[in-house]
Amino acid sequence: MESLTLRASTAASPLQRRRLLPGRQRATYVRATASAGEPDLSVRVNGLQMPNPFVIGSGPPGTNYTVMKRAFDEGWGAVIAKTVSLDAEKVINVTPRYAKLRAEPNGAAMGRIIGWQNIELISDRPLETMLNEFKQLKKEYPDRILIGSIMEEYNKAAWHELIERVEESGVDALEINFSCPHGMPERKMGAAVGQDCDLLEEVCGWINEKATVPVWAKMTPNITDITQPARISLKSGCEGVSAINTIMSVMGINLKTLRPEPCVEGYSTPGGYSARAVHPIALAKVMQIARMMKEEFADGQSLSAIGGVETGNDAAEFILLGADTVQVNY
Length: 330
Ligand SMILES: Cc1cc2nc3c(=O)[nH]c(=O)nc-3n(C[C@H](O)[C@H](O)[C@H](O)COP(=O)(O)O)c2cc1C
What we know:
This protein has 330 residues and is an alpha/beta fold. 29% of the residues lie in helices and 23% in strands. Helix 8 packs parallel to helix 9 (312-321).
């Protein structure tokens, strides 16, 4: 039985060559013969060898050792940990931090949930704790791909320190969170960078002069033309882009309390929209990036698609549009 598998191509830009180990090239799809009944879904992306292209995305399923270990045990192709930064003390995650959209009219309580809004920030666990857990995971699963997700303030020294410490934990690659809509914009964190191409170019420059493992830049959809930050990130030396992060949203106003949801002690703020309802939007954004990459980048840069993936069919749609890997958050 024939199946789709991936084989590394050899092209690499000067920036990539600087940091790529032998074999650290992007995969291209080729036909291969699978062994004994099971289709071979293995992929090699930016030199990262994965048993399949299905990746746990940065978020609740990458919060701690226990859930990441379970993902490896269940056979996921790679795991991207919840985003970390140097100082977890500045992160306060409130409760409740979710609101939901149901498929039934008027949000009838039993209706299927098709959209989530969250106001969850990055990891509020101490960086050292997260790094120790990354080390433990890489000790137990040396052949599996663990990707560190990072976010920092507009400060070159801080970015460099964070990259050095996260790389020391043994992660195989880095995903840069340029995309959480409710990051800390006043500190130029998250989407505040991903929405400003000048800032993005500068910060990508800092990151790529320091990082020694492949770097994926995670894009925000909260921008008119998502190909612009994707292009800047790749031109600045990132090996790949991931898209999409959540879509800025106000899930609804509670007509009893007259306050937006979710509401914490009387206050609320717009959050990030995700899940099934965003899948068509994510398909469009991924399609735009894939087309741009096909036309402008031939050095093996990769694309990781995210947004509302609940089934194998959802993932196959992204792969058909040109994604190398697909991230899942549920
Ligand atoms: C509760 C929650 C927390 C998240 N935290 C992070 C995060 O720490 N870092 C990050 O890059 N993306 C984070 N995301 C965004 C997801 O990785 C993903 O990009 C987004 O939810 C869209 O995909 P989905 O529809 O499959 O959830 C989070 C999403 C949710 C729902």
